């Protein structure tokens, strides 16, 4: 404590409030330490305070990896700002590390001169060894660390314990409150009100769990941490991040999976149909199932199927019977659904598939984000088998995308895959709350006249009629065998198969014609066009904005409609000298764009389980503009930099 | 559902305009005719009836019924049929599958449809061979079966469809032979059963596994090799009704002769369709050691999945009120930004 104490004694008594435009903090601890709760509470408080926010939870795939190890570290990063932000931030301004493993896992992401607050009590010999530090090394005694960062050593375990000595709770339960102690301390450091969290603790532990004593203990720990900051003379200054300039209106914090579930329910109401979500639990998509299962009072039915295949097949059965068949999964599950997706394509039934992408191949990195299911979603089926792909670009956008998916699926009688990802599914942002009355209805009609009915008749959008069981005179049979155009009878005729294959592709063209033309963010022409899709919107937009502020000729477009693509994409590409496609995969959209438009697009490709840093994108933009990029078709950022 | 007066329907009305394309002499024809008759007899309405199938010879069935039909993908009919019932519990849903479709590639789905007790009429056509792929052994082929893919004889232990269904918590389990005159009665009982009804139908593939069930169909051997099950009645069989099935002291079944050796009818096993353990024992009776039981093995009343799901939805609406989107959007910590910018008032709790 010597050094930190001397730092504290140098500080003024008055504790100045230093104003910051934004701050990035990260809570890190063992997966049992409650870091996700601390992080999400800080997020709620900041959102309600009026900041713009973006978050990045980062947790291990194991529910409880061995305690104290690096594998078991759980982290939660939040960027809160008085300006508009789109990403959880590159460098961490303040790290809260609850044990040696958390310090080890996250210290590299802290900016030089950044704040590092550690729970000193946990830096024991045993814990240091568990974290994989070399024998006799303690980072807290390392001068290099102390030089590089502002290190604050707080005996949180002991202080938390002392603050709850009168609580009457057992030692284990008391220890579980130390995340609230840490949160209280950070609330003080960043000048945040504690009332949102007090209210949450009362509601959750007091009312819902009926354990008011646990609520009280957590609140006392929270307050103790806060008061420690105020009285301990440890920190030379507090920080203040003002409210953001946000458009007036009502807001709430929302994650992508929450928005997705609400969007699907809203769509069912707009279509006057029952939303029936058939799914098999899989990380990181399960929360969509959980959310919908809790919305049965909307008429929603959820079906937890025996496997991924049953889930999609049941959803197809639902659509055949005339309600909204929906399913959700992640990469490995999408692979299992492939054959059934082909069935939905050939039977031309509406179907919505939510695919929350994660690191692959195979089981891969279940809790980490990636965009590597694009080609699987696009082509991963037998036969020529086109379907519609949509990609939400932020947590809140999942809501609109879900509605659009239902609209397209029912309007064109096609399956739609929504390519969300782990980052936007679990990440959160302020969401401008819509009014239900402002949402456009989704008109759906079912035929009833046997005279004019043809199973594979077509309307002007090339959609076949959605005739549903229970309708007299429209009895018909569909299935996976090729059907005759019009009548829908089984047909092996070669010309008919060509015609039906053509029609399935022309339906995509019909969808494309309905899309608004793309307008580049920035200028209509220029030196460099950055093309992105899905969850990378925030980081790409921020990086392009920064480059433009520096006078660089850079624009961007972000695809929400990945298949079919808007019809003017090829024209837009031609108006720029160079094209850069950053993706969290090894170049899947790049392959599609190169193939379709014959343009020399280059890639920035990262598969490290994390979103792009703005710095990495900035580097790539500079390399492209300066010509230093060279002939490489793609580059990979390593150690936060893109190098030639 | 439309409520127009019921027209008189005949088996013919359930025939679609498609030519039936099974091999001449296939057992499927007999089953198709009986199903059409039963549907007509039960006054099922064509527009409210759905046939769902997987892949295989039997799974072409829906094309030949003038009802709604869905010829899905290999093994997945139970899942698609479950979705149909969840979406519209009022529909009469029949599911057609085979020994390969239902017990090999689709075994998992069949198991779960049965345990959930989705109200489906499931017919499993068991011909103990892969017909559509031209003659490989199936999961019900007997050990040693020589086929194109098992030239030295199958080394797979065959599965008993009925034991499988009972173990999967099915609420109705029955068996019949394609050409048996009792088939309509069994199908009628299955159709009337509320919940998942599972009927194994011994079906002759006259191309790749002809006469597999001759022992159970030939006039001279049929009565010796099968025993008809009737609830509350003793298990008696034989050309002269002179044999029976008795349970031994250690709970095993044995064949006994009735009459002069002192075994009376009262000593025999009496069939109880509500007894799962007994049904399982019956499902283990295999030719030639035993006559094979035919008819309804097991039938109990239990809640159907799709009805329980509807009840939960109704209860949710009753206790929480019908869903209101605006309330949903505004749930949680909502805050209001007034006037915009950093001059806005402090965020409000709701």
Descriptive account of the structure:
The complex is a heterodimer of chains A (about 650) and B (about 350). By secondary structure, chain A is α/β, with parallel strands linked by helices. Chain A has four domains: about 5-240, Pyruvate-ferredoxin Oxidoreductase, domain 3 (3-Layer(aba) Sandwich); about 255-440, Rossmann fold (3-Layer(aba) Sandwich); about 445-515, no CATH class; about 525-635, Rossmann fold (3-Layer(aba) Sandwich). Chain A is built from 22 helices and 23 strands. In chain A, helix 6 (about 155-165) crosses helix 10. Mean pLDDT of chain A is about 95; it is low at about 1-15. By secondary structure, chain B is α/β, with parallel strands linked by helices. Chain B is about 25% helix and about 20% strand. Chain B has eleven helices and twelve strands. In chain B, helix 2 (about 75-85) packs parallel to helix 4 (about 105-115) and helix 3 packs across helix 4. Chain B is globular and about 95 Å long. Classes of the chains: A alpha/beta (about 650), B alpha/beta (about 350). At the A-B interface, helix 2, strand 9, helix 11, helix 13 and helix 14 of A face strand 1, strand 2, helix 2, helix 4 and helix 10 of B. Strand 9 (about 250-255) of chain A pairs antiparallel with strand 12 of chain B, so a sheet runs across the interface.
What is the overall pLDDT average of chain B? 93
Main beta sheet of chain A, described?
7 strands, mixed
Ends distance of chain A = 44 Å
CATH architecture classification of the largest domain in chain A = 3-Layer(aba) Sandwich
The count of strands of chain B amounts to: 12
* CATH topology (fold) name of the domain at 11-212 in chain B: Rossmann fold
Strand order across the largest sheet of chain B: 2-1-3-4-6-5-11-7
Relevant CATH superfamily of the domain at 11-212 in chain B: Thiamin diphosphate (ThDP)-binding fold, Pyr/PP domains
User: How many whole angstroms does the radius of gyration of chain B measure?
Assistant: 25 Å
């Amino acid at each position: 404590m010597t050094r930190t104490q001397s730092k504290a004694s140098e500080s003024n008594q008055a504790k100045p409030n230093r104003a910051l435009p934004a701050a990035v903090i990260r809570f890190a601890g063992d997966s049992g330490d409650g870091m996700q709760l601390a992080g999400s509470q800080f997020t709620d408080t900041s959102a309600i305070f009026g900041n713009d926010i973006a978050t990045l939870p980062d947790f291990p795939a194991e529910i409880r990896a061995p305690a104290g190890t690096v594998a078991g570290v759980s982290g939660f990063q939040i960027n809160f700002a008085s300006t508009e932000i789109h990403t959880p931030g590159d460098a961490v301004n303040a790290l809260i590390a609850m044990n040696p493993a958390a310090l080890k896992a996250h210290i590299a992401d802290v900016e030089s001169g950044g704040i590092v607050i550690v729970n000193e009590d946990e830096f024991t010999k045993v814990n240091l060894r568990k974290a994989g530090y070399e024998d006799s090394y303690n980072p807290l005694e390392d001068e290099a660390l102390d030089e590089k960062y502002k290190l604050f050593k707080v005996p949180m375990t002991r202080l938390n314990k002392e603050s709850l000595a009168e609580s009457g709770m057992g030692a284990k339960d008391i220890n579980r409150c130390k995340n609230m102690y840490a949160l209280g301390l950070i609330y003080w450091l960043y000048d945040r009100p504690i009332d949102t969290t007090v209210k949450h603790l009362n509601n959750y532990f007091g009312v819902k769990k009926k354990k008011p004593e646990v609520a009280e203990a957590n609140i006392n720990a929270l307050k103790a941490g806060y008061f420690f900051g105020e009285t301990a003379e440890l920190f030379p200054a507090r920080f203040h991040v003002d409210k953001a300039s946000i458009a007036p209106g009502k807001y709430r914090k929302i994650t992508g999976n929450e928005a997705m579930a609400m969007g699907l329910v809203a769509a069912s109401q707009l279509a006057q149909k029952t939303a029936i979500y058939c799914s098999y639990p899989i990380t990181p998509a399960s929360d969509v199932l959980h959310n919908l299962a809790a919305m049965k009072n909307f008429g929603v039915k959820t079906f937890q199927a025996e496997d991924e295949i049953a889930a999609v097949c049941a959803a197809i059965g639902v659509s055949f019977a005339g309600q909204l068949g929906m399913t959700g999964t992640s990469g490995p599950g999408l692979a299992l659904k492939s054959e059934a997706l082909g069935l939905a394509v050939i039977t031309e039934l509406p179907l919505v598939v939510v695919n929350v992408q994660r690191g692959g191949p195979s089981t891969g990195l279940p809790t980490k984000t990636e965009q590597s299911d694009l080609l699987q979603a696009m082509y991963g089926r037998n036969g020529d088998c086109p379907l519609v792909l949509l990609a939400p670009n932020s947590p809140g956008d999942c809501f609109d995308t879900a509605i659009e998916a239902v609209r397209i699926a029912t309007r064109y009688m096609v399956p739609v895959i929504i390519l969300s990802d782990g980052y936007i599914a679990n990440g959160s942002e302020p969401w401008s709350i819509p009014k239900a009355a402002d949402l456009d209805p989704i008109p759906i009609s079912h035929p009833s006249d046997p005279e004019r009915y043809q199973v594979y008749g077509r309307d002007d959008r090339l959609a076949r009629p959605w005739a549903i069981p229970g309708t007299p005179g429209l009895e018909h049979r569909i299935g996976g065998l090729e059907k005759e155009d019009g009548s829908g009878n089984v047909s092996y005729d070669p010309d008919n198969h060509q015609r039906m294959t053509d029609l399935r592709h022309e339906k995509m063209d019909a969808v494309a014609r309905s899309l608004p033309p793309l307008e580049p963010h920035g200028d209509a022409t220029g030196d460099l066009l950055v093309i992105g899709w899905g969850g990378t919107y925030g980081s790409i937009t921020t990086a392009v904005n920064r480059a433009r502020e520096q006078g660089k000729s850079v624009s961007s477009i972000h695809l929400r409609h990945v298949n079919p693509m808007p019809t003017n994409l090829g024209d837009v590409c031609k108006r720029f000298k160079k094209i850069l496609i950053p993706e969290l995969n090894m170049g899947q959209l790049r392959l599609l764009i190169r193939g379709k438009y014959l343009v020399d697009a280059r890639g920035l490709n990262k598969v490290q389980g994390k979103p792009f840093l703005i710095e990495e994108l900035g580097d790539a933009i500079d390399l492209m503009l300066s010509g230093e990029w060279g002939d490489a078709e793609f580059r990979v950022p390593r150690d936060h930099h893109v190098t030639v | 559902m439309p409520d127009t007066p019921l027209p008189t329907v005949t088996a013919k009305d359930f025939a679609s305009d498609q030519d039936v394309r099974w091999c001449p002499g296939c057992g499927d024809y007999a089953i198709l005719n009986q199903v059409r008759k039963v549907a007509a007899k039960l006054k099922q309405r064509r527009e409210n009836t759905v046939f769902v199938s997987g892949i295989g010879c039997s799974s072409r069935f829906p094309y030949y019924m003038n009802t709604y039909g869905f010829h899905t993908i290999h093994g997945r009919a139970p899942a698609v049929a479950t979705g149909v019932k969840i979406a519209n519990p009022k529909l009469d849903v029949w599911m057609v599958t085979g020994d390969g479709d239902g017990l090999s590639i689709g075994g998992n789905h069949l198991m779960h449809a049965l345990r959930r007790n989705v109200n489906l009429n499931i017919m499993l056509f068991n011909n103990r061979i892969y017909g559509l792929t031209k003659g490989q052994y199936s999961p019900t082929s007997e050990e040693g079966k020589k086929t194109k893919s098992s030239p030295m004889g199958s080394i797979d232990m065959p599965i008993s469809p009925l034991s499988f269904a009972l173990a999967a918590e099915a609420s109705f389990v029955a068996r019949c032979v394609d050409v048996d005159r009792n088939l309509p009665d069994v199908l009628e009982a299955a159709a009337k059963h509320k919940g998942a009804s599972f009927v194994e139908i011994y079906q002759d593939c006259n191309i790749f596994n002809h006469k597999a069930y001759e022992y159970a169909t030939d006039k001279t051997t049929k009565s010796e090799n099968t025993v008809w099950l009737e609830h509350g009645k003793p298990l008696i069989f034989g050309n002269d009704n002179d044999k029976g099935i008795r349970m031994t002291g250690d709970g095993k079944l044995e064949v006994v002769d009735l009459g002069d050796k002192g075994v009376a009818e009262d000593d025999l096993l009496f069939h109880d369709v509500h007894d799962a353990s007994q049904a399982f024992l019956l499902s283990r009776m295999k030719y030639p050691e035993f006559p094979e039981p035919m008819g309804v093995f097991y039938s109990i009343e239990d809640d159907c999945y799709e009805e329980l799901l509807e009840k939960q939805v109704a209860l949710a609406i009753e206790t929480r009120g019908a869903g209101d989107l605006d309330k949903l959007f505004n749930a949680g910590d909502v805050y209001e930004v007034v006037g915009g910018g950093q001059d806005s008032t402090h965020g409000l709790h709701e």
